Amino acid sequence: MLNLPKFKAAAVQAAPIFLDTEATVELVCRLIREAADNGANLVAFPEVFVSGYPYWNWVMNPVQGSPWFEKLCKSAIEVPGPEIHKIALAAARHHINVVVGVNERSPNGIATLYNTLVTISDEGRILGRHRKLVPTWAEKLTWANGDASSLKVHDTRIGPLGALACGENTNTLARFALLSQGELVHVASYIALPVAPPDYDMAEAIRLRAAAHCFEGKVFTIVSCSTISQEIVKAMTATHPEAEELLARPNSAFTGIIGPDGRVMGDPLIDEEGIVYADIDLNRCIQPRQMHDITGHYNRFDIFDLKVNRRPMNPIQFTDLPPEQTDLNTYVDWADPSQENLP
Q1: Is the pTM of this model over 0.90?
Q2: Which residues constitute the catalytic centre (predicted)?
Q3: Less Cβ around it within 10 Å: N or C end of the chain?
C-alpha cells in the first residue's frame, strides 16, 4: 500500500558572513542544529550562501567590480572539499537532509566559478551537486554555465527531492525535467535582489514562481532566500555610496513553504531573518493529480518530445586515459556522526 512520507521542513532566511567562508560554514552548521532541534527533517539554505552573492555586478561596472571577483574566487570552495565535508558531518550528526548554495570553484580553474546547490542526506552523504544552468543577467560576469548532469531528483527518506537556484525556477523545461523524475519535494534557493528594476517586486516574484511550480506539478516547494546585511551594504558603499539606496529597497526577500495547491503554508518571512517551518504530508500530492498530472495522463507525449542532454561538459577529453569518475556519494561515507568535535 502506498503511504508517502510525512516530515517537517525548515527554510532559512539569513545573510552569510560576507566572503568569509569559514565563518559562514560555522553559521550553516549552527542553523542545521537549530532546525534539527526544532524537529525538522529537511533544511534549505539560500543561493550561494557560502559565502556571498556578487552584488557588485549590479552596482559597479565590470572594471570596478573585478577586484571583488578575485575576492570571491579566493573564498569559493571545491565540491567535494573540506567545507562541504564539515556541513555533511553536521547533517549526519543531526539526522537532517540539507540543501545549501555555494560558490563552487572548478578544481582545474582558479577563476572558473559555478553557482552550485549541494544536496546532502540525513546520513551525511553528498547526493548531488547542481550547477546553475544559466546565470541570470549580470551574474554572467561571475559564473560559468552548469550542465544537466546534475539535473536529477534524489531518493531520500523524506521523499523524492529536487532543487533549482533562483532564476532557474522560471525555466519551465528544467522544472519539468525534475517533475518527470518523480519530484515531490522541491527546494528553490534565492538571494535578496533589491537592485532589480524599480517596478519589480522580488518577494512577490519569488512567491509566484514557487506557487506556479507547486500548482503545476502538485508538489511542495521549500523556498529559502538570503537577506542583505549591513556588512554587505557597507562593503558595496565604501566606493559606491549610491549603492546604499539600491540595496535598501524593501520586499526583496521571500522565504516560505508552499503546498501542492500553490498556497503558502503558515507565515512566510519578508526581508526579515529567521527560519520558517511547516509540516509536510506528501500524500497531499496524490488527489490533485487526478485533474492535472502533467507528467502522466494530462499530457500528450505523442506531440511533445523533451530531450535532456545529461552528459557532463568538460573543457577537454583525453583519449589515452579512462575518464575520471568523481563519486560524491562516497565522500563522507566514513563519517562517524558521534564524533565529539562535530558542529
Answers
A1: yes
A2: 47 (proton acceptor)
A3: N
